[in-house]
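Most newcomers find our protein records easier to grasp once they have seen one. A learned vocabulary of local backbone shapes supplies the integers on the structure line. An example says more than a description, so a record of this kind follows:
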Amino acid sequence: MKKSKLLLTLLMATLFVGFTSCDNDDDEINLKVEQNEVNIEVGEKAVVKITEGNGDYKAIVTDEEVATAETKESEIIISALAEGSTTVTVTDKEGKSATITVNVVGIVGTWNLDETKLAVEVEANEETAEKIKTELASNNFKSIELNDDKTFKMTKEGEEGTENTVSGTYIYVDKILTLAITEEGQEAETISMTITEVTKTSIKLNYDQTESFQTKYPEGEVTKALVTLELTAAASQE
């Protein structure tokens, strides 16, 4: 009888330990972040949130010449230093980890117009709208080369398949790319565009010409004249 009670006690204890182990496994918390890859421009910051983890987070960057990272509560703050790619490894107090691939990108390079990704938006009276759409859709821009020294060269399609180039200097601040086209003997022409996205292989931008067409067609009831286009990296820089 005593042996039976002893065996029963051992069996219950074994089952209890087994259930406890299962419960502990079920309660295990892995480290997760809201995104495992970010594209960020040189000089900017990106914030990636930790969506699940055990606290006491640390971040280690593989190449600190490309980017640095720090943790603040449940966020990883990544600062982009130079073009390139690196990895941020995030750990918590339980030894769990997650990785984030960081692509630091810039606008320097040669970019070609992807004609299939050019859109025109116009709001004006019907007659004026058609005139503006025709002008904007016949954009003869082909490519632009943006250099480290803040100079640029733009290529346009001329008559009978010829190419014309214009050059000048540029400023890029707060997503606004401003081109100052300089031609000998003429006053510099300034063009401003908003860059909405930069990756290793493409640049998306908006060119708002509303004010220009409001001046050109004062009776045209123009409230919007916007070109949206995507440029792709030249094969040599992909």
The longest strand covers residues 109-123.
